[in-house]
Amino acid sequence: MAWLAALALAGVAGVSYADPAGGSAKPPVAKPGTAPAAADTDTYDPTAPVNLTRKTAGYTYFNRLGADAAAHDAALKDCVADAAKASQPDTYAYGGGSLLGAVIAAAVTAELDYIADKRGVQANVENCMVVKGWRVVRLSDADGAAVAALDQPGRAARLAPMVGAEPPAGSIARVWGNDAVAARTVKLTAAGRVGHGSVSLMSLAPPPKPAPGAPAAPPTPKPPKRPPTASSKSVALAKLGDPPAGSAVIFFRVKGTSFHSPLQLGFQREGAKPDEPAWRADGQPYFLNAGKGLLFKKKDGDVYAYVVPPGHWRLAEIGDALMTLDFCLGAPSFDVAAGDVVFAGDFDMGADNLAPDLNPDTAKALLAATPALAAHLKVASYINGSVTQCGAAIQEATGTAPSYLYAFEIKGAPFREGYALGSATVGAGQMAAPGATTPVAQPAAAMAPASGAPPAAPPASSPTAN
Hints:
- The protein has helices spanning 2-9, 69-83, 99-131, 141-148, 152-159, 199-203, 279-282, 360-366, 371-374, 392-398; strands at 60-63, 135-138, 171-174, 248-255, 264-269, 287-291, 302-308, 311-319, 324-326, 331-336, 341-348, 377-379, 383-386, 404-405.
- The chain folds into two domains: 2-207, no CATH class; 237-405, no CATH class.
- The strands form three sheets. Strands 5, 6, 8, 9, 10, 13 and 14 form a seven-stranded mixed sheet that branches. It has a four-stranded mixed sheet with strand order 7-4-11-12, covered by helices on one side.
- Helices cover 21% and strands 16% of the residues.
- The protein has ten helices and 14 strands.
């Protein structure tokens, strides 16, 4: 099972280990449901911005009003499977030019990559659960250690009445807050040390062993080789006349990039299904990747324009030279018809809010020297809630899996019918301001006796993007 493989990578049922030197020690081998190893000192700062690159510090679990253990476990397994589709950038160790040195360097590199991916899985599991409307709750060190010391069935039984309780036992440390739009949110750094593991992950039971003689699961088929035309290249607006027959033009501006901001962004054309990139059906371009190194950027921003097939295009990711943040769990998208010249927005990567500015005057100014294109101008009409298979589009378009998973919403834009994640799945009172870690001031609640209390009824969901 995909979720079990990722669970092992996450430290095996949420188990973490000490690596004070930055992660060079080999983690203990364990099986799902085993007791946790010694953990790093875990410091939690409630004033710090949201960090999408590491799990919340301390002993944590997931809570959603009215949920039961079955809903908790199902959501968690889905998120673990999605987290397995992301990976951290490869590390490099120099072998000194000798065969022995190369062997040692390869071993060190493999170990560092393992540790980095382990940390990344824990971060992405938490990101995924938050987008699904679950709250991250911190237990006190004493309560967390007491639960972690139980065997797997004991942990599951102890956690069962807590996952849907209101108020939750402990302190609410993180809720959905549309954090990807906030400049202060940490998005594109190496996955941080885990420290104490997730009690929720520790509570998951391993799947039953296959019956003797049962047929093995069929291997996952390899995706077809991506044609060289799958990604579209930017062209200068001045070189374009009317949109080619049967095609359209998407253009936008990217400015404000720096060492402290994303350097690039990407758009993806949706396929017929979330797990099927559009190019597989028609062989036409489906991914636009825009970005420049800081030495080559223009002071007032860089304009990118692409000749594309018509379809539904979504903001797929933001990134830098090494890492990407995949908006597979929810993204704004817009329709493009043949003959359209669509302005997808003015993206200021240095602004407090990364959502695109859709001022039509900006679009007209950018097309002032190209009246043939200006005659077909339309400003993108974004709809939140486009979901795709995590990792698939970015992996196939760039050859590299994304580093982190999350969702991105444009405030005030409507939601796609049927979307039930992000702001569409949590009540307004449970949302944080974008980038703010602690959602609502609240005292820590003591952990109830093992018998627990019945869960409260869930609140009505909110249809408004935060």
